[in-house]
Amino acid sequence: QVQLVESGGGLVQAGGSLRLSCAASGTIFSINSMGWYRQPPGKQRELVAVIPSGGSTNYADSVKGRFTISRDNVKNTMYLQMNSLKPEDTAVYYCTVNARVKSLYASYDYWGQGTQVTVSS
């Protein structure tokens, strides 16, 4: 079992910055990849950024050049640095990991409960 706790969300003015954190805990054997999704009001959940193990980071076109995803493999923590925030970035941001837990062979996707990011104009 894997538990994910997001933090760092809040209210910020357009042009400001926020840093989201996602801490993974539990009987984790390994984390294959970590990523961020977001769900704006009234819209479908969409990919923001992913950081696979041994691969290049991937970003949605809407956040390229403004957001940076990173991970600390020792702490099993992922970060999303968000700069030059726009009102359209307003959404609930969800942390997700693909991980293998101890005692299980296969890897599965796990999700956090989300953290609200609101950008005012």
Layout of strands and helices, then pairs:
Blueprint: E1 2-7, E2 10-13, E3 18-26, E4 28-39, E5 46-52, E6 58-59, E7 67-72, E8 77-82, E9 91-101, E10 107-111, E11 115-120
Parallel strand pairs: 2-11
Antiparallel strand pairs: 1-3, 3-8, 4-5, 4-9, 5-6, 7-8, 9-10, 9-11
Please describe the structure with a list of short key phrases separated by commas or semicolons:
single chain, 121 residues, mainly beta, 7-stranded mixed β-sheet, 4-stranded antiparallel β-sheet, 0% helix
Account of the 3D structure:
By secondary structure, the protein is mostly beta strands. It has strands spanning 2-7, 10-13, 18-26, 28-39, 46-52, 58-59, 67-72, 77-82, 91-101, 107-111, 115-120. The strands form two sheets. Strands 2, 4, 5, 6, 9, 10 and 11 form a seven-stranded mixed sheet that branches. The mean pLDDT is 95.
The largest sheet, given as strand count, sense and whether it forms a barrel, is: 7 strands, mixed
| Total helical segments | 0
* Helix amount: under 10%
What percentage of the residues does DSSP assign to strands (E)?
over 45%
The pLDDT mean sits at 95
Over the alpha carbons, how many angstroms does the gyration radius reach? Answer: 14 Å
Structural class: mainly beta
- Sketch the topology as an H/E string, one letter per element: EEEEEEEEEEE
Uncertain segments are none
